[in-house]
Amino acid sequence: MDDGAAARLHLPTQQTLSTRLDQLPRRAQGRVTGLLPAQDAQEHSMLLRLLEIGFLPGETVQVVARGGWGGDPIAVRVGQATFALRRQEASMVQVQPLDDTSLSAKELA
């Protein structure tokens, strides 16, 4: 992915902006609406990593577990994979919380 790809990535809009991934409760599901813009080169690299491992707009995510003190790291399932994210990384992912009734039959299977 070129360096401009993260800048052109589907950034959240006011209509879809609901919460950050680090604020979802344990076992809660959400749909990725976008990633926050990077403020520096380190955040830019972090955003590219998040994109590469699957945190793309439209993907369903679920908070699986939280670490002990302060809830860091956060175990998050995206697609069929589970990743441990630092709170700082998870805070860059914008999500729309989902309730069980909004999931499609395909996602429940």
Concise synopsis of the structure shown:
The chain is α+β, with helices and mostly antiparallel strands and 109 residues long. The chain is 24% helix and 29% strand.
DSSP strand (E) fraction?
25-35%
Share of helical residues: 10-25%
Structural class: alpha+beta
Pattern of helices and strands: HEEHEEEHEH
Shape: globular
Give me the number of helical elements.
Answer: 4
Q: What's the overall average pLDDT, rounded?
A: 81
Largest sheet: 6 strands, antiparallel
What is the alpha-carbon Rg in Å?
13 Å
Unreliable parts? 12-17, 101-109
Strand order of the largest sheet: 1-6-2-3-4-5
Cα end-to-end separation: 32 Å
Tally the beta strands: 6
Protein name: Ferrous iron transport protein A
InterPro entries: Fe-transptr_FeoA-like (IPR007167), FeoA (IPR052713), FeoA_core_dom (IPR038157), Transcriptional_repressor_C (IPR008988)
Pfam family, one: FeoA
Organism: Acidovorax benzenivorans
Q: How would you portray this structure in words?
A:
The protein has 109 residues and is an alpha+beta fold. It is 24% helix and 29% strand. The protein has four helices and six strands; from the N terminus they run αββαβββαβα. The protein has helices at 3-8, 41-52, 87-90, 105-108, and strands at residues 19-20, 29-35, 60-66, 74-78, 81-85, 93-98. The longest helix is centred in the middle third of the chain and has 12 residues, at 41-52. It starts with a helix and ends with a helix.
